[in-house]
Amino acid sequence: MNEPDWKHLNAVPLPLQEFQLQLEQNGVNAKQLEEWRKIPVLYQLALEELKNKIKLIQTEWKLMDGFSPIEHIKTRIKEPHSIVEKVRRKGYEVTLDNILREIHDIAGMRVVCAFVKDIYRLMDHLRTREDIRILEVKDYIAQPKPNGYQSLHVIVEVPLILFEGTRWIKVEIQLRTLAMDFWASMEHILYYKFDKKVPEHVVNGLSEAARATYELDQKMLKLRGEILSLSEEQEQEESPEQPTAAESSSKTLSLATDHTESRPHTC
């Protein structure tokens, strides 16, 4: 790649120079370093590609149903030091091969839906698509984490059509409801505040809040069903009843008979 390309790479949200320093300090060879220079752009492009696909689904659902179950979408690229730390925690050397093979959430997307039912509806749709490969699913909604965390985590691969050929890039998608997303944000803030040394009573409070989050989601889902049911009944009451085929035939015959009887008799 030439010099202008390097400038483009350095403009990507992932701090390339910081990562380059991290890799150099860990003895990554020059060839791997050259390969890594391409990676931030590829992950960013994979996120944009996936975001466009989700937005298309969002728009199509809105056209079909009159509303979209997807509330909003957020994306992020994992910080270099977090990637290096995660590779080490997994017990691997900090090499490009290990990063690409073992770290699945360098590119991350959060899709927030209104209801739990919508999360699984979206998941079922993703399974049918040929332009997305699903590698792994972790259902923390059906089986929440011990601290109460709920979300559906999906590792997918997104194809990028490059000059060198098609390259499939991994992205982690987190699917949550609005209530789950609020709980997770508050949990993150609290753990950051206490530097991950959270008092026991706060941990218990978070668990109680997680249960309340689940109950809120279930209550709202039930209310949604009742509202849709009432809406359908109202539409049926407001729309004029259509006569059946037999009624239409009988009415036509009656009109024809009345018309015949009303004619003047001729000799």
Automatic annotation (TrEMBL):
GO terms for biological process: guanosine tetraphosphate biosynthetic process. It holds the Pfam family RelA_SpoT. Residues 75-198 form the RelA/SpoT domain. Residues 230-267 are annotated as: Disordered. It comes from the Bacteria. One of its GO terms (molecular function) is kinase activity. Pathway: Purine metabolism; ppGpp biosynthesis; ppGpp from GTP: step 1/2. Coiled coil: none annotated. Residues 258-267 have a biased composition (Basic and acidic residues). Keywords: Kinase, Transferase. Residues 241-250 have a biased composition (Low complexity). PANTHER family: GTP PYROPHOSPHOKINASE YJBM, GTP PYROPHOSPHOKINASE YWAC. This is GTP pyrophosphokinase. It comes from Paenibacillus terrae. The lineage of its organism: Bacteria, Bacillati, Bacillota, Bacilli, Bacillales.
